[in-house]
Amino acid sequence: MEGSIVRLSSCMVLLLVAIVHGGCGDDEPPPQDFPCGGSGGRRCDASPVIDAALAAPDAAVPDAPPRDASPPDSSPPDAFISQQLAWWRLEETSGVADDSAGAHDASIVGSVTQGVAGKVGNGIELGGTGHLSAANAPDLQVSTYTVEAWINTSSPNLQWVVAKNPTPDGFNDQISLFVTGACPSGATCTGLPTSGVAAGRIGGCTLGAERTLFSSTRVNDGTWHHLALRLDAAGTVALVVDGVIQAAATGAVPCLNTGSISIGAWSAAPIVPPFLGRIDEVQLWGVARSQAEICSDAGGTPGPVDSCAL
Asked: What's the CATH architecture for 79-302?
C-alpha cells in the first residue's frame, strides 16, 4: 500500500501544476502522459487515476524500486580496533621500534641487532646486553589483557620475553612472560624450574599472591615458538604455547604499576640478564583473547577442545 500512496501523491502534485499553468486548453501543446496510474498513465484528468489507486489491491501497483544502497562497511568496528593496545612488529633495520597499533614506540637500551630474519619478516636479535623499552602510559595499565610474542632461543638461562614491573620483586609483576632456566648470580629463583619451559606470572602486589604458570613444552630448543599470557576480568590467567593452553589458574590480581614495558628483559633488568635469541611480533591487547584467536596468531587452525593444528 506504501507504493500506492507514493504514486497517489505524485499524481496530485502533477495535477496541481497542470491547473496552475492553465490546465489543458486548446492553445496548449498536446498533453503528455503523467507518470502515474500504471503503465498507461493519464492526461490532465487525474480522477480516474485516484479512483483506481484507492480501489486497487496493494499488489496492483508495484512498490517503487529501492534507492541504491551504500556498500557495506567491511572494516572492523572501532571497539575491536581499540582492543589492540600495542603491536611491535620489529621490522625496522635501525632506530626505535614502531608501535603499529598505538603510540608506544620502543627505544633501544644497550645492544640490539635489528633487521635479522624473524618469524614474520624482520625481527630483533638480543645477545644478553640489550632490550627494548616502551614508556608507561595510562592505557598500558590494564587488568585484563593478552600479551603475545614469537621467540627463538637456545639459551639455558632464565630470561624474560615481555615484562612490566618497576621493581626487582616478582609480586609486583603486572605483565611477566618469560622462559625458565639457570638462575643468575644474585637472584632468587625459588620455585622456578630450570628446564627451559615457558612461564607467565601475575604479581598480585603482595608476597604470596602471585600466580605463576609453567608450560609442559620446552621452548629453548632453537626453534620458533609462539607464547601468550592471557588474563580475563574474572582473574583467570592462562599460559598458551603454540596456540594451546598449557596451564591456567584462578584468583590472579594484576599489580598495576608505572613501570615501562620491556621487550627482552625483566623491567628490573640488572637482576636478570636480557634475553638471548630472537624475538618478533610482540602484541599487547586490552582484552582476554580466545584460544582460537591466539591459535590463529600462532599460524595454526583452531580445533576441538582448545586444540591448535600447526
From this structure: Sandwich (2.60)
